[in-house]
UniProtKB/TrEMBL annotation:
Belongs to the Nudix hydrolase family. NudJ subfamily. Its EC number is 3.6.1.-. The lineage of its organism: Bacteria, Pseudomonadati, Pseudomonadota, Gammaproteobacteria, Alteromonadales. PROSITE patterns: NUDIX (PS51462), NUDIX_BOX (PS00893). The gene is nudJ. It is an enzyme of class 3 (hydrolase). PANTHER family: NUDIX HYDROLASE 23, PHOSPHATASE NUDJ. This is Phosphatase NudJ. The keyword Aminoacyl-tRNA synthetase does not apply. Residues 4-135 form the Nudix hydrolase domain. SUPFAM superfamilies: Nudix. It comes from Shewanella subflava. It comes from the Bacteria. Keywords: Hydrolase, Magnesium. Monomer. GO terms for molecular function: hydrolase activity.
Length: 152
């Protein structure tokens, strides 16, 4: 393995309500990019704690993901790869979000079709891929107990 190669563990949460998905908007290198609330796992925190922290920082919402959609591997470039744990949460109503992280410029509720139309602006191809997996699974996601960690 190259010494420059840096594997990273990230978490993301698909937040769904009535056919819409909550995405965060951020400016990266002067360009608008969209993503699920997501980020890196920090030392000393569980994967679920990381999800809750990222959701709070990027949306202002206090949510605990209820199940795992999938674990994805993504190579961003020859020196950077990610293992991304993607979870999901359902909300009964679409709420207005107030991001705490100044890097998040706005939040949006988009349909799957709207997200597909903006695919070139997604932070990674995993945004749409994980939403498609969420839809295909029709509520039959994996228990967070697979993680073998205290999360409640």
């Amino acid at each position: 393995m190259s010494e420059r190669y840096k594997p990273n563990t990230t978490v993301a949460t698909i937040i769904h309500c009535a056919g819409k998905f909550l995405l965060v908007e951020e400016l990266i290198d002067g360009e608008v990019r969209y993503n699920q609330p997501a980020g890196h796992l920090e030392a000393g925190e569980s994967i679920i704690e990381a999800c809750k922290r990222e959701i709070l920082e990027e949306t202002g919402l206090i949510i605990t993901p209820f199940s795992l959609v999938g674990i994805y591997q993504f190579t961003a470039n020859p020196e950077l790869a990610f293992v991304r744990f993607t979870f999901c949460a359902e909300l009964p109503i679409q709420v207005k979000c107030e991001p705490l992280d100044p890097a998040i410029t706005r939040t949006h509720w988009f349909s799957r079709e709207q997200i597909a139309q903006k695919s070139a602006q997604m932070r990674s191809p995993l945004v749409l891929k994980s939403i498609d997996d969420f839809i295909k699974q029709q509520g039959k996601h994996y228990s967070v107990r697979l993680l073998n960690a205290d999360y409640l």
